[in-house]
Amino acid sequence: MKFKQFPVITKKIIFYILIAVFLLCSLVFAISYISFNHQFREQYDASIREIAEAASDFLNPDDFAKYRENPVPDEKYNTVLENLQTLVDNFDLNVIYVSAVEPPEYTHIFYYYDPVNKHGKWSPYPLGYEEEYYEESYNRTTRLVYEKGEHLVRHTIKSRSGSHITAQIPVYDSNGKIVALLGAQKNIQEFVNARARFVQFVIITVLITALFFVVLFAGYFNLRFIKPIVQITDETNRFASSSEKPNNNLLSVKNRDELGVLANSVYQMEGIVSTNIETLNRMTTETAEALASAIDAKDKYTRGHSARVADYSRSIARKAGKSESECRSIYLSALLHDVGKIGVPNSIINKNGKLTEEEFKVIKTHPDMGVQILVNITQIPNICDGAHYHHERYDGKGYPEGLSGEDIPEIGRLIAVADAYDAMTSNRSYRGTLTQEHVRKEIENGIGTQFDPEFAKIMLELIDDDKDYTMREVE
Ligand SMILES: [Fe+2]
Predict the structure, then answer these.
(1) What is the tens place of the pLDDT at every residue in 38-77?
(2) Composition of the chain by helix, strand, coil, percent to 5
(3) In the chain, what are the domains?
(4) How far is the centre of ligand 1, averaged over its atoms, from the C-alpha of 366 (Å)?
(5) For residues 376 and 26, what is the distance between their CA atoms, to the nearest angstrom?
(6) What value does the CA radius of gyration of the chain take, rounded to a whole number of Å?
(7) Which residues touch 444 (CB under 8 Å, ≥6 apart)?
(8) pLDDT digits over 116-139, tens only?
(9) Cis bond leading into 400, ω under 30°?
């Protein structure tokens, strides 16, 4: 089944589940990310700060004043530098430096070791080297360390020289005065990569989990709620359009909740409505049949004519592929096609011998009179048309309107064939029923002149199927 064909309610539920799962996943992702970041940052921060503090233990800050006066490395100086270098190598640091900061002009280097050796020498900054120091470089962190004595860690993510953290701590002389700042920098690209891998992992896991739950929830909702709702909706739609018998499908809704109760109620309700419709239909049919008998009783030669024409008309309609409700309307319309004869005097209807032209004129008024009688029946479609047009001919030579071809309403063309067939297969005062062969010939000859070709051909088929010639008036 394509998504387009899903019931609207299914699409809505899938949409809501998707939103809920997406929000939940975003929350899970945010919490994991924050806790991961926090945990690792703390670890990294603590370790770099400890390294910086360990490095500061190697220093002899009381000698710094002397080194500023006379920047010549002595033995003590070299020992400290070696210790710092070992520390850098052991902990795989980017750089370690000890310098006095003289804002805003310059920094005065005491120790500097950069194993990456970017400048082509082991140390571009020898003892006493003074580098111009830009005001913007003397940032908040440096100020806090150098002026307030705080121990800080600065994070630089994805800078020109990669991602790294720098611990900066103050260096005090024996008088408690800050004489320098010690900085130790470590590359944290590994951490940044680990975090990216973690993010990737969380996103994939969350998506797979989300998909799993969407499928699971959608499947459950579909089975538990949507399927019965669709069954009930389909059944009510079917019943509303056809009013046929209730469908047993509703009994397969086994829910023990309101949906089950609803399905059962709909089933019961359809049963009641269906019974009422049946009763009403039967009443209508019986009334029409009674009326038809009354019409036929007026004419001593046409007993049962209306009922037979109605039967034949319904058979033609069925063979022409009409629906059951159309066949029923055609049946009722054919039953009452001669209702206008009620208004024709008995003396004319039952006259023995040839009718005068005047009398024939009166007979020809029965289609219009039929319309006047039936015009107020609105619940049976085209009922007037049957009475009005059943004496029209396909070639336009009929009455009362003289319409031809497709201009004659279909029901008139159909009843005309059945009416003529019954006239030929009924007994008359002057003759018995005609032979089946004769009747067949007459119908065939009338195709396209007296009769609509489609309905006449169907009548021929009915005749051919009627091997024992049962379709006729029996004594
Ligand atoms: Fe008639």
Answers:
(1) 888 888 889 999 999 999 999 999 999 899 888 888 999 9
(2) 60, 10, 30
(3) 8-195 (3.30.450.20), 272-465 (1.10.3210.10)
(4) 7
(5) 69
(6) 53
(7) 456, 460
(8) 765 444 455 788 888 776 556 566
(9) yes
Instruction: Please report, as a single letter, which amino acid is at residue 461.
Output: E
- Residue with tokens 């310098």, as numbered in its chain: 99
- The whole-angstrom separation of Cα 26 and Cα 183 is 39
Q: How far is the CA of 415 from the centre of ligand 1 (A)?
A: 10
| Distance in Å, CA 390 to ligand 1 centroid | 7
Q: How far is the CA of 46 from the centre of ligand 1 (A)?
A: 111
Tell how far the Cα of 363 is from the centroid of ligand 1, in angstroms: 9
- Write the pLDDT tens digit of every residue in 240-249: 887 677 777 7
Q: Tell me if the pTM is above 0.70.
A: no
